[in-house]
Amino acid sequence: MILFELIDYDTLRVIWWALLGVLLIGFALTDGFDMGVGALLPFVAKTDVERRVVINTVGPVWEGNQVWFILGGGAIFAAWPPLYAVSFSGFYLAMFVILAAFIVRPVAFKYRSKRDSVTWRTRWDWALFAGGAVPALLFGVAVGNVLLGVPFHLTEDLMPMYDGNFAVKFLGLLRPFALLAGVVSFSMLLMHGAAWLSLKTEGEVAGRARRIGMIAGLVAAGGYALAGFWLAVGIDGFALTNDVVPNGPSNPLYSEVGREGSWLAAYAARPWITVAPLMGFVGIALAMRGLQAGREVSTLLWSKLAITGIISSVGLTMFPFILPSTVDPNSSLTVWDASSSHQTLFIMLVCAAIFMPLILAYTAWVYKVLWGKVTEADVTKNADTLY
Amino acid sequence: MEFGLVELSRLQFAMTAMYHFLFVPLTLGLSILVAVMETVYVMTNRPIWRQMTKFWGTLFGINFVLGVATGITMEFQFGMNWSYYSHYVGDIFGAPLAIEGLMAFFLEATFVGLFFFGWDKLSKVQHLVVAWLVALGSNFSALWILIANGWMQNPVGAEFNPDTMRMEMTSFFEVVFNEVAQAKFVHTASAGYVTASVFVLGVSALYLLQDRHKDLARRSIAVAASFGLASALSVVVLGDESGYSASHTQKMKLAAIEAMWETEPAPASFTLVGIPDKEARETHYAIHIPWAMGLIGTRSLTEEIPGINDLVSEAEEKIRRGIIAYDALMTIRENRGDVPADARFIFEQNAEDLGFAFLLKRYVEDPRDATEEQIALAAEDTIPGVFPLFWAFRIMVALGFSFIAVMAYFFYRASFRNMQFPRWSLYAAVAIIPTPWLAAELGWFVAEFGRQPWTVDGVLPTALSASHLSIADLLITLAGFVIFYTVLFVIEMSLMVKYIRKGPFQDVEETHAWQARHEARLRQMPDEPTASTTPAE
């Protein structure tokens, strides 16, 4: 099949790098508010009815939202197999914790209101809280570690190996900068969840969500700025030191990598990428104003803009690196040497081009059908069928 | 077998996969049964069918959520525990998984929320479409997963690339239309339909025995028995198709399932029962059915099916060719940029058997240093566990045939005996509820245990595929999964029982309204025979 040569290998790689970003952002925009709502649950809702209102704002959509995460995993597997192999096994115990959260959360949604017992419901409420808060934090910690570099190397056979024992591997993730990144992602998603609740609920619950959301926005903006400063002064970046062959075979060991300069050198080389952090700050500021003024739809949109800007800024800053290695920089994975084959990337692009528009269309339709606030009256009236 | 890293990784994968498959078959089948019931409701407008849709829909939901939740584990474990596998075949294997997400999982997950929350927000037809989209999504999902799994059994449309040290896709078409994958999909999906049918039949039978919800129970039995009968027949026919494709794609698996040690003159006999003994390489107390194996496996009277001993000698030759390929690969790697033409030629001649050289990695760091003894040991390793395969397969097949009998019986009583079922048959229907799950798990056991010692047949040995984690890592997650999954299972079962006990939610107002409309219609048409339109009760 010659068809795949229609698009150059290096172009396809950049497209798939961008699509990886789109999937991560799609995940953060949709499942992000589920996680935020979960983390907010104990603080914005005091009575059982209030809690059910909060839970039912995401009740019909969390399943679809969670698929962004699963599709993200599948797309990394298909388009960036070395990344999938190294990161999932390298972050083994952290992945297990995230997995546990993603298993317990669906079950909590579905089962919480199926029994009347107070203990039963309280336990599931805590499960929902943990299922939202823990991954919201850990995703940021993971991103922080990616920026710092991860201790792995590849053998000649391209077998991923990790250095350090298991305790170091899990606790070793909790480095100060990574924790700061975790705080940024946690507070960002908390703000997003608050923006969602401000749109979907009313009265006391919405009021509490707005107040917490504004504080979360402030923390997110401060943490994000601090992380940028830290990157500028305290953390070495990575750079390719030999001539890259952007359409060469996907063997990470073929490129040479040095630890030179700062990650932020990217902003001197490609000044236009400044737009990403700008989107982050402007988005947060306007979302906070929206929360304060009680605006609904626009607040959620500004919050989405902020998330899009913050996540893109990480990818754009690191380009072409995807997963740098601290112990053996030459093993680092980059856009040019960690992708699938030319043909697989092309086929997957065709599939994505067919199905992504469909997915967006029917997802939009579902949200439209479910448009409107969830009220205490709804929950009381449909006590048997709602979550 | 000593329990090292590879064995622990296998144990964890097997455990989580089998657990996941406790929920999948019911999702596959019940989603369709529920959609069928809702179709009848939309067509006839009779409230009882809506009640049925909602009741079975609730049970579907309790089951569905765990299928989704435990499915995430499956997708992530390839990267977590099988990182070399992920690197080595991700270029091919990842694609169907990603397409599954794009085409199927998004569909079912997005609409399943509307199915439960959309009753008042959608028109009848819209809600029906949603129900069918959920069913369609679930089944598409199975299709792509089985295309991925089919490739592990019969790796077509791919070749090894020395530059990237991995398999790369050469033909997407061949991967998708892999005969093993297609046969497997229909076999697995049908097995799911049988599972759901047996479940609906059993729960309905319980209601009849308890003398409650009889209206709902009778109709449910009628739907389940007809759907179940067609599916049970399909499972067996497509299982036979899988056997036929195994006879030329996975000869060793087939020989092991049949405990066929020696190549027999065609057409080979089928061993009905016996006690296979791997040490002695023979099957004790065997009862043979002449000709049967040859006919099932090759659909001819003249083609031979190779026995295990011959296949081991064949594997030995492949290992030797694999060593030649490995040697050429090393030459290619050392001379990157200026590869000698003969090395490339030799590699291409033998590349097909490269995976067999990797079997030696268990015994020696560099396959080129292997002794004769080690080559013999590695060849021996290509025999999977014969005894468990032999018996797992036979129990599965026996169950498969018995489902046909059960479904045929209930179909007959429902269609021709005015839905009257003797009490013994109802007790039996309740008692057999767990059996389709047993059959399905045994089926997966045969498919995957029979694939050993490979993760990808003839391409990548299992021992090489695992991540280099520490034993402590594995023990932590293994313990985590066991505790976590046990708790979830107990909760799930208790909710299932609670909602089955509770029974359907009776929409009294709507039933009365329908009854009034119905009687009004009858008064307008005095000639209409009344017997056929009154409810069964």
From TrEMBL, chain A:
Localisation per UniProt entry: Cell membrane
Keywords: Cell membrane, Electron transport, Heme, Iron, Membrane, Metal-binding, Oxidoreductase, Transmembrane, Transmembrane helix, Transport
Domain of life: Bacteria
Main location: membrane
EC number(s) recorded for this UniProt protein: 1.10.3.10
Enzyme category, top tier: oxidoreductase
Topology versus the membrane: Multi-pass membrane protein
Molecular-function GO terms, alphabetical: electron transfer activity; metal ion binding; oxidoreductase activity, acting on diphenols and related substances as donors, oxygen as acceptor
Any one GO biological process: aerobic electron transport chain
Transmembrane segments: 15-45, 66-84, 90-108, 128-150, 170-191, 212-233, 269-288, 300-323, 343-367
Entry GO CC: cytochrome complex; plasma membrane
Pfam families: Cyt_bd_oxida_II
InterPro entries: Cyt-d_oxidase_su2
PANTHER family noted in UniProt: CYTOCHROME BD-I UBIQUINOL OXIDASE SUBUNIT 2, CYTOCHROME BD2 SUBUNIT II
Family listed: Belongs to the cytochrome ubiquinol oxidase subunit 2 family.
This protein's name: Cytochrome bd-I ubiquinol oxidase subunit 2
Record gene name: cydB
Automatic annotation (TrEMBL), chain B:
Known EC number: 1.10.3.-
Gene Ontology terms: biological process: aerobic electron transport chain
Organism of this sequence: Actibacterium lipolyticum
Entry membrane topology: Multi-pass membrane protein
One Pfam family from the record: Cyt_bd_oxida_I
GO cellular component, one term: cytochrome complex
Keyword Transmembrane helix included in the entry's annotation: yes
Domain of life from the UniProt record: Bacteria
Keywords: Cell inner membrane, Cell membrane, Electron transport, Heme, Iron, Membrane, Metal-binding, Oxidoreductase, Transmembrane, Transmembrane helix, Transport
Location relative to the cell: Cell inner membrane
Enzyme class: oxidoreductase
Designated name of the protein: Cytochrome bd ubiquinol oxidase subunit 1
Transmembrane segments: 20-43, 55-72, 92-117, 129-152, 190-209, 221-239, 391-412, 424-447, 467-491
Family: Belongs to the cytochrome ubiquinol oxidase subunit 1 family.
A GO term for molecular function: heme binding
